């Protein structure tokens, strides 16, 4: 966009100066929230006294799935199971890099059985290197792949020993980060990758510094000097639980400030309503397990 008027607004960005953001096609595994409910409390967002509407959750989830497909991504679905109301949060059930699958081991006994359903899905779909962790490991809830290394969260869910285990089993460098705010109990509530690293450039990430320990903040600043720093107002509506394909960035619709920050950098924010799923402490990323072949 180039016309005289844009020059009068300081906040307007010259579109021709924006970096070209090139999307890459992704493969996701998702689980419909057919048995979604908030029946127990394992994070500060969950309140069993607040009613949840399963039909609305299904609608919001379906829009998310269809949005991925519209962008050309492949989406597989795993069959949801009665009695596992959090199974919609597929991100917690596997970390897949180079076709190697590292399964999950949940901290909460209420979620423990989810791990085996996902393990079986991977085996039945032809994945031959499927390993289950011996340490508490909530998978992509606490692991974010930058294209070069696996950022790994701990503090609330995933055991720090699971980081070393992931490094050994996946054969990728792992960088441990400590979460300190119970509202941001998984790494994927505090940080997400906007664009993976290339041969010449580090990954671009967005994160909420306030969710991390002082030492981890310094690690992040050192690794990602160009990161998008997410403000509290956006973090508090699950803005850090975004999903990016390198260009299109799906965010909870309330995360307007973050959407503006991303647009200025050449990304295309896509705002979706995930209000029903947030009642369980989840957002777009939590519903999405990425399969990297
Ligand atoms: N109620 C679920 C839990 O507390 C929500 C999980 C959200 N998933 C995520 N990847 N952050 O375990």
Identify the notable features of this structure and list them briefly.
293 residues; alpha/beta; L-arginine/glycine Amidinotransferase, Chain A; three-stranded mixed sheet; 15 strands; disordered N terminus; binds arginine
Describe this structure in words.
It is a single chain. The chain is of the alpha/beta class and 293 residues long. It has one domain (18-290): 5-stranded Propeller (L-arginine/glycine Amidinotransferase, Chain A), CATH 3.75.10. 23% of the residues lie in helices and 18% in strands. The chain has 7 helices and 15 strands. The protein has helices at 54-70, 114-124, 160-170, 214-223, 232-235, 256-264, 275-278, and strands spanning 27-30, 74-77, 95-97, 100-102, 130-131, 143-145, 150-154, 174-178, 191-195, 204-207, 228-229, 243-244, 248-252, 268-272, 289-290. The chain has a 3-stranded mixed beta sheet with strand order 2-1-15, with helices on one face. Strands 3-4-5 form a 3-stranded mixed beta sheet, with helices on both faces. A 3-stranded mixed beta sheet has the order 6-7-8. A hairpin with a 4-residue loop joins strand 6 (143-145) and strand 7 (150-154). The protein is globular and about 50 Å long. The model is unreliable at 1-12 (pLDDT under 50). The structure holds arginine (ARG). Arginine binds next to loops.
């Amino acid at each position: 966009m180039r016309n005289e008027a844009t020059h009068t607004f300081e906040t307007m960005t010259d579109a021709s100066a924006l970096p070209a953001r090139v999307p890459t096609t992704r493969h996701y595994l998702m689980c419909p929230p057919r048995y979604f409910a908030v029946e127990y409390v394992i994070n500060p967002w969950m309140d069993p006294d607040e009613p949840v509407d399963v039909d609305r959750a299904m609608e919001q989830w379906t829009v998310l799935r269809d949005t991925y497909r519209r962008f050309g991504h492949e989406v597989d679905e795993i069959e949801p199971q009665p009695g596992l109301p959090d199974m919609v949060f597929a991100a917690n059930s596997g970390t897949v890099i180079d076709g190697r699958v590292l399964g999950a081991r949940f901290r909460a006994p209420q979620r423990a059985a989810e791990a085996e359903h996902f393990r079986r899905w991977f085996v039945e779909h032809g994945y031959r290197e499927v390993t289950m962790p011996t340490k508490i490991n909530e998978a992509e809830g606490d692991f974010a792949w930058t294209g070069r290394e696996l950022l790994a969260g701990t503090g609330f869910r995933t055991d720090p020993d699971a980081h070393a285990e992931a490094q050994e089993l996946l054969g990728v460098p792992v960088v441990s980060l400590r979460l300190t705010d119970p509202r941001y109990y998984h790494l994927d509530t505090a940080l997400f990758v906007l664009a993976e690293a290339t041969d010449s450039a580090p990954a671009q990430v967005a994160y909420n510094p306030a969710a991390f320990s002082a030492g981890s903040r310094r690690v992040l600043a050192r690794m990602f000097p160009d990161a998008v720093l997410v403000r509290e107002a956006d973090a508090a509506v699950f803005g850090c639980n975004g999903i990016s394909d390198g260009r299109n960035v799906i965010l909870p619709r309330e995360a307007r400030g973050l959407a503006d920050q991303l647009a200025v950098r050449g990304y295309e924010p896509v705002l979706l309503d995930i209000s029903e799923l947030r009642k369980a402490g989840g957002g777009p990323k939590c519903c999405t397990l990425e399969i990297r072949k």
